[in-house]
Design goal:
140 residues, binds adenosine monophosphate, HIT family, subunit A
Length: 140
């Protein structure tokens, strides 16, 4: 049995998708179970599992497409706004192990919530912890 991801099979044309944009290194198509009209996924054609796995140039290509498509999607479905996000790892909700960026159109009064709603309870971090985390991320 193949362990290729469902998105690789879309890239290879083995299963259908509503493709909205294609470049040499990326593909964008409508999500099959949309959270809103126009919900679109942008993927690298190569099956990098997580953002950290994608080479910088490929990640740049993916985000350039996100930038290009976001206003087009918004206009196409007459959305008021969009959420852009990645479930980057299973604990963050990633189900398909092939990097993908969700573009989810949002509408005034749609009952949805901001991206802040994705995590659990907010941690109570003191100044020392915040300093330590900032240093660890910044490499200081
Ligand atoms: P995630 O939880 O971030 O891995 O999201 C995977 C997304 O892929 C979900 O929103 C699914 O609805 C979507 N999806 C799964 N299979 C397909 C497919 N064959 N075509 C389009 N979207 C799909």
């Amino acid at each position: 049995m193949s362990d290729r991801t469902i998105f690789e099979r879309i890239v290879d044309g083995e299963i259908p998708a509503r493709v909205v944009h294609e470049t040499e290194t990326t593909l964008a198509f409508l999500d099959a179970s949309p959270l809103a009209p126009g919900h679109t996924l942008v993927i690298p054609k190569e099956p990098y599992e997580r953002l950290r796995d994608a080479p910088e140039d490929v990640a740049a290509d993916v985000f350039a497409v996100v930038r290009e498509l976001t206003p087009r999607i918004e206009d196409a479905v007459e959305a008021d706004a969009v959420n852009v996000g990645i479930n980057d790892g299973p604990e963050a909700g990633q189900e398909v192990p092939h990097l993908h960026v969700h573009i989810v159109p949002r509408f005034e009064g749609d009952g949805g919530r901001p991206i802040h709603a994705v995590a659990g309870e907010s941690p109570d971090l003191d100044d020392d912890e915040l300093d330590r985390i900032a240093d660890a991320i910044g490499g200081g």
